[in-house]
From TrEMBL:
PANTHER family: MALTODEXTRIN IMPORT ATP-BINDING PROTEIN MSMX (PTHR43875), TREHALOSE IMPORT ATP-BINDING PROTEIN SUGC (PTHR43875:SF15). The keyword NADP does not apply. GO terms for molecular function: ABC-type transporter activity; ATP binding; ATP hydrolysis activity. Keywords: ATP-binding, Cell membrane, Membrane, Nucleotide-binding, Translocase, Transport. Coiled coil: none annotated. PROSITE patterns: ABC_TRANSPORTER_1 (PS00211), ABC_TRANSPORTER_2 (PS50893). This is Glycerol-3-phosphate ABC transporter ATP-binding protein. It comes from the Bacteria. GO terms for cellular component: ATP-binding cassette (ABC) transporter complex, substrate-binding subunit-containing.
Length: 351
């Protein structure tokens, strides 16, 4: 069990805290993801867990033991960095067992762990090669194998796939997740990519400006966002959040909300359709500025009631519409989200 209890981080007494009262418990064998935009504090928290950054407030416990002042080597964990951190003058095998040699682990154990790790990451035939002779995905697997042979029950990963191309990044997501399940280890994974968070995490913590916005399973975060930041950050395309007032002169959207006087209304792009399906569907007059076909779906871009911000809707199939005109989009009222003017959730879907 890893416990962060009211963790804070500030670099000087005069500075504002960059990590502000983070509390979370991570269970053994969990794949826990920290996600947020650049500068949200996710990597700082990971480095505090690793012992690479000092903790200026709160407590870090691993299996009930206070870790705040212990050096990294005493925390029984390993870390996979964004740049892999491989030694260019060492072979794959030498890179993988380097930590074991430093700890003076006996040669028989080194060989057995190396053989097992190479098999797990499918690099047995590459054991004598140097990092420069490997692809990006293969170098990432070497870094994973090095963490595996350490025998640590906890592996920290700091944006390990950010340097890979999109296709390789997708395949590596499944490889890392499958390996984690096979080994039963705890993984704390940092990313700015919400797609990685949704597809890999058992639970996800969304951060912004050093503050925890919400913690939950990917389904919980997607279906029941606690605020507009989570609603717009989690999900692709992002949720449209528009005023739900009925004052058209002030560029409100004519939606009769159950809240008085005003509220923000959230609409997932994929909740829209071009044909009315229920008599009480919300009808939205959209100025269709442009549209894009993406195979099985059509993306619509436009504005509502002359507002400045662009909204986006995702229609199934090839929509028979033409841009540069008004079109009517329908949304079931059960698919509406409501937030107060400060951005906090007012009710669950369909109120």
């Amino acid at each position: 069990m890893i416990e962060l209890q009211h963790i804070k981080k500030r670099y000087t007494e005069q500075d504002e805290a960059v990590i502000k009262d983070v509390t979370v418990s991570i269970t053994p064998g969990e794949f826990f993801v920290m996600v947020g935009p650049s500068g949200s504090g996710k990597s700082t928290i990971l480095r505090m867990i690793a012992g690479l950054e000092s903790i200026t407030g709160g407590e870090l416990l691993i299996d009930g033991e206070r870790m705040n002042d212990l050096p990294p080597k005493s925390r029984h964990l390993s870390m996979v960095f964004q740049n892999y951190a491989l030694y260019p003058n060492m072979t794959v095998s030498e890179n993988i067992v380097f930590g074991l040699k430093s700890r003076k682990v006996d040669r028989a154990t080194q060989f057995q762990r190396l053989s097992d790790a190479l098999t797990m990451v499918d690099l047995t035939d590459f054991s004598s090669r140097y990092p420069r002779e490997l692809s990006g995905g293969q170098r990432q697997r070497v870094a994973l194998a090095r963490s595996i042979v350490s025998g640590a029950d906890i592996i920290l990963m700091d944006e390990p796939l950010s340097n890979l191309d999109a296709q390789l990044r997708e395949s590596m997501r499944y490889e890392i997740k499958a390996l984690q399940r096979k080994l039963g280890i705890t993984v704390i994974y940092v990313t700015h990519d919400q797609t990685e968070a949704m597809t890999m995490g058992d639970r996800v913590m969304i951060l912004n400006d050093g503050i925890v916005q919400q913690i939950g399973t990917p389904i919980q975060l997607y279906q029941v966002p606690e605020n507009t930041f989570v609603a717009k950050f989690f999900g692709t395309p992002k949720m449209n959040v528009i005023p739900g007032v009925t004052d058209w002169q002030n560029h409100g959207v004519a939606i009769n909300t159950p809240f008085d006087p005003d509220a923000l209304v959230g609409i997932r792009p994929q909740a829209a359709h071009v044909n009315q399906e229920n008599k009480d569907d919300l009808a939205i007059s959209l100025w269709l500025a442009s549209m894009t076909y993406i195979g099985s779906d059509t993306l619509l871009f436009g504005t509502i009631n002359n507002r400045d911000e662009t909204v986006q809707f995702k229609i199934k199939g090839m929509a028979n519409l033409s841009p540069q005109q008004y079109v009517t989009i329908y949304v079931s009222r059960e698919d509406l989200y409501y937030f107060d003017l400060a951005g906090q959730a007012l009710a669950t879907v369909g109120v």
